[in-house]
């Protein structure tokens, strides 16, 4: 049942439930939902009402309240109730004997007697979850051959059997609830259970959690050995131990998830120390004891974790303030430990600063690529063949919300039918968490094509810095400056201070969705020369181009995209694309007005932020910026709010890649124009999914039309960069662009050289308003068209050109953008 406030209530078979009360005021988002359940299995996803007032479910033994989240409730025939908190803010269980509260995903509270206190929150076993989820999503007779759509995150395999298809948690998340409920990003919805991706500290083994389950369990830490191999004593370390969990690489295409409820696999600690060559911490019922030396060192069965002796590698920073281990335990599981001296929050940072961090390849989670944040990538793309930017942090003052982060990777290897590509990026910000400690939170978006004949794969996740049990996740160097941290796939929901367990998702169009986790150690690295120097608050206008892949049929057709002329009523109008930078708060926001050329679909794609506390858009300088989908202004498809829009854009200076350029072609040496790449997934209310991969944009400062030159000639030289569909083979191509322009006649002649092996010459273009021009031409059975504009460079109103182009032919289409710089000054005719 989907309520008007977007709450969702799933009822299992052979269940008895009554809706007692539903009151909702759409203008205020307030109301009340009350239900009574006699028996059965139920799942509740809270909507708008639950953000302010808990939704209540009364059973024969208890009353359960769900606030801003997801809960699973199992009521036995005798009335005994088990309530499992899966996700969100909190869950309460009340009986005549008292109340218990759970706010940690994967914990259950039971009530067997209406007059006795409920149980303390305890970890939910895999068997219990399997049984409950099986009741909700399985069922049906063996001879029922119907199959569900398995829509989930984009059309993965569904469940067969049953008289009706019941949505999974992922389906519910994709139903548009990402703006409701707990504000958690559905792309990072984690399965139940305190898996190792969980940033919230987990309990330390067998037994029950504290009655209210709301305070972090303190850890008692001791130094056990004193045989010295290190000349100094390390102290006051905070950190975390975690051991690999099976479910992190499971496929979400069945009714159950592989969940290991063993909470001893993910334990935070604080105030640890190391001396005498040993780093040792008591983890409640178990002990962590590892040798420590300077630099990088090997462990050969020396040291122990909760799962016995270990071997592997340890790394101690040169300032001896941060330490991490990559280990193999005696049961062959991988384990990861990190510890550091936390940043002193009483130290005041002032002034503008850019920091750059290197991300170490994930060790724990068995990822098959060394590109940050990805579970897998095209086989020919690695760090050596891709451009991965540092993980940037830019601040205005203090480690608070004025600080934002940015990282991006672009890899394009090969040309034409042999090409593979990947594009992924992150933006984030700093918050103060529920333990009054600074922390990083954000998200990532990406897409990839594993071969020129495969469909686009979407990647997405939340992201946060990983804390110890004291909430401290940012670690300092010997000067007290931020220098070290670990990021993983958890996140802080918008406006929330408590970390939420999440999973990263890799989502093919034509096969099952896969969940995974990542852990990356961040350490200081060299900043690019000049970064952060030129910072201008300004508005840029321009063009978009590329292809969109439609996921509505098995053929997955592509369509050419261009500026949306419904925005201004004029085809090719550059004001349909806008990027606004704000140097005072290190943010940017923007809008891409996009339409599909050969059908009636159009999009208003909003990204970034104007808020000084959001991490959706990051502005470092005029050549270094990026943004992901906005939560302030809704993106639309054909004027209706999109049910999902996942996007990322970045300036090309962040991810320079040139290895796929053909002979004789180079990118524009533009001084003032900005251009780059973007990726997006757009889902409409009818569940049609469109994906954009390596679409391009170009933008700059437009001159006033009255200020354009009225005489003289000039030559412009640059590139075309676009996406190609050559009879089902899809790839990125770049060609040489030249435009000989006559300002007196307001006309030009464009020559295209070696774009996907194609050449066009003498393509006539003209401007009706002196600034914006258009035209078309043909060659060898293919047609090409252009829309473009002149752009300012300082006071020079015609310094550069940018725009969009299309090429069409039999079973051939290409679309993209161009950028070009004027070669010398405007030439005037002799008098």
Q: Secondary structure elements and their pairing?
A:
Blueprint lengths: L7 E4 L4 E10 L4 E16 L2 H5 L2 E4 L4 E13 L5 E15 L2 E5 L4 E5 L10 E2 L2 H12 L31 H6 L59 E10 L22 E10 L2 E6 L2 E6 L3 E5 L4 E2 L2 E9 L5 E8 L4 E7 L12 E7 L27 E2 L2 E5 L8 E10 L6 E13 L5 E12 L7 E9 L9 E2 L5 E7 L2 E2 L6 E2 L3 E5 L5 E3 L2 E6 L14 E12 L7 E6 L13 E6 L4 E10 L5 E7 L8 E5 L2 E5 L7 E2 L2 E2 L2 E8 L22 E10 L5 E12 L12 E14 L2 E14 L4 E9 L2 E10 L4 E8 L2 E12 L2 E14 L2 E11 L9
Task: Please give a structural write-up.
It is a single chain. The model is unreliable at 138-232 and 246-261 (pLDDT under 50). The protein is globular, with a radius of gyration of 28 Å. The protein is mostly beta strands. It contains three helices and 52 strands. The strands form six sheets. Strands 33, 34, 35, 36, 37, 38, 39, 40, 41, 42, 43 and 44 form a twelve-stranded antiparallel sheet that branches. Strands 1, 2, 3, 4, 5, 6, 7, 8 and 9 form a nine-stranded mixed sheet that branches. Strands 10, 11, 12, 13, 14, 15, 16, 17 and 18 form a nine-stranded antiparallel sheet that branches.
């Amino acid at each position: 049942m989907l309520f008007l406030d977007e709450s969702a209530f799933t009822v299992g078979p052979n269940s008895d439930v009554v809706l007692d009360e539903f009151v909702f005021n759409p203008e205020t988002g307030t109301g009340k939902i009350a239900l009574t359940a006699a028996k059965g299995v139920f799942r509740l996803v809270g909507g708008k009402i639950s953000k302010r007032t808990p939704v209540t479910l009364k059973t024969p033994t208890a009353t359960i309240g769900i606030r801003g989240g997801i809960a699973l409730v199992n009521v036995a025939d005798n009335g005994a109730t088990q309530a499992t908190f899966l996700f969100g803010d909190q869950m309460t269980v009340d009986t005549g004997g008292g109340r218990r509260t759970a706010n940690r995903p994967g914990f259950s509270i039971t009530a067997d007697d209406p007059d006795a206190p409920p149980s303390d929150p305890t970890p939910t076993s895999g068997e219990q979850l399997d049984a409950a989820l099986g009741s909700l999503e399985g069922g049906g007779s063996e001879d029922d051959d119907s199959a569900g759509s398995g829509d989930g995150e984009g059309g993965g395999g569904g469940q067969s059997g049953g008289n009706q298809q019941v949505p999974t948690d992922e389906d519910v998340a994709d139903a548009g609830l990402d703006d409701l409920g707990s504000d958690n990003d559905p792309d990072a919805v984690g399965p139940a259970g305190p898996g190792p991706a969980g940033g919230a500290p987990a309990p330390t083994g067998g037994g029950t959690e504290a009655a209210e389950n709301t305070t972090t369990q303190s850890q008692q830490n001791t130094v056990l050995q004193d045989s010295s191999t290190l000349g100094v004593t390390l102290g006051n370390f905070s950190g975390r131990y975690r051991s690999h969990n099976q479910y992190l690489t499971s496929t979400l295409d069945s009714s159950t998830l592989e969940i290991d409820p063993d909470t001893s696999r993910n334990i935070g600690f604080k105030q640890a120390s190391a001396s005498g060559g040993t780093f040792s911490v008591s983890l409640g019922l178990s002990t962590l004891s590892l040798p420590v030396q300077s630099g990088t060192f090997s462990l050969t069965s020396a040291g122990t974790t909760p799962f016995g002796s270990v071997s592997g590698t340890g790394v101690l920073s040169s300032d001896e303030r941060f330490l991490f281990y990559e280990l193999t335990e005696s049961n062959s599981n991988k384990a990861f430990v990190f510890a550091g001296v936390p940043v002193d929050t009483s130290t005041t940072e002032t002034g503008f600063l850019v920091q750059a961090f290197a991300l170490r390849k994930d060790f724990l989670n068995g990822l098959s690529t060394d590109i940050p944040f990805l579970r897998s990538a095209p086989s020919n793309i690695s760090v050596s063949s891709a451009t991965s930017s540092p993980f940037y942090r830019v601040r205005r003052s203090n480690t608070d919300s004025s600080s934002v982060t940015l990282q991006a990777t672009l890899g394009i290897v090969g040309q034409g039918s042999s090409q593979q590509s990947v594009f992924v990026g992150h933006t984030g910000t700093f918050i103060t968490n529920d333990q009054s400690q600074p922390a990083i939170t954000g998200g990532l978006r990406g897409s990839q094509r594993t071969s020129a004949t495969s469909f686009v794969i979407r990647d997405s996740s939340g992201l946060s810095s990983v804390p110890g049990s004291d909430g401290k996740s940012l670690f300092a160097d010997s000067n007290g400056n931020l220098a070290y941290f670990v990021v993983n796939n958890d996140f802080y929901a918008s406006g929330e201070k408590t970390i939420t367990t999440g999973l990263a998702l890799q989502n093919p169009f034509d096969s099952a969705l896969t969940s995974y986790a990542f852990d990356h150690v961040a350490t200081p690295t060299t900043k690019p020369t000049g970064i952060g120097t030129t910072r201008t608050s300004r508005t840029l206008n321009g063009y978009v181009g590329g292809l969109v892949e439609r996921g509505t049929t098995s053929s997955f057709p592509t369509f050419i995209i261009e500026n949306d002329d419904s925005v201004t009523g004029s085809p090719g109008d550059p004001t349909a694309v806008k990027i606004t930078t704000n140097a005072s708060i290190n943010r940017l926001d923007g809008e891409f007005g996009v339409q599909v050329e050969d059908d009636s679909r159009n999009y208003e794609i909003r990204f970034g932020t104007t808020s000084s506390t959001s991490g959706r858009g990051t502005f470092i300088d005029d050549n270094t910026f990026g943004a992901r989908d906005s939560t302030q202004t809704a993106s639309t498809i054909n004027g209706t709010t999109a049910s999902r829009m996942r996007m990322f854009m970045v300036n090309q200076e962040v991810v320079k890649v040139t290895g796929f350029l053909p002979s004789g072609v180079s990118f524009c040496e533009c001084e003032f124009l900005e251009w780059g790449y973007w990726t997006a997934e757009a889902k409409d209310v009818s569940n049609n999914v469109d994906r954009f991969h390596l679409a391009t944009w170009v933008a700059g400062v437009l001159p006033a039309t009255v200020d354009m030159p009225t005489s003289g000639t000039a030559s412009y030289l640059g590139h075309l960069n676009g996406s190609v569909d050559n009879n089902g083979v899809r790839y990125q191509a770049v060609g040489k662009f030249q435009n000989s322009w006559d300002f007196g006649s307001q006309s030009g002649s464009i020559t295209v050289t070696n774009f996907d092996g194609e050449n066009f010459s003498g393509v006539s273009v003209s401007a009706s308003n002196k600034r914006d021009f258009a035209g078309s031409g043909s060659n060898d059975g293919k047609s090409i068209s252009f829309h473009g504009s002149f752009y300012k460079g300082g006071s020079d109103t015609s310094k550069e050109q940018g725009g969009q182009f299309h090429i069409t032919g039999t079973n051939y289409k290409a679309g993209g953008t161009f950028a070009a710089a004027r070669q010398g000054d405007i030439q005037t005719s002799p008098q």
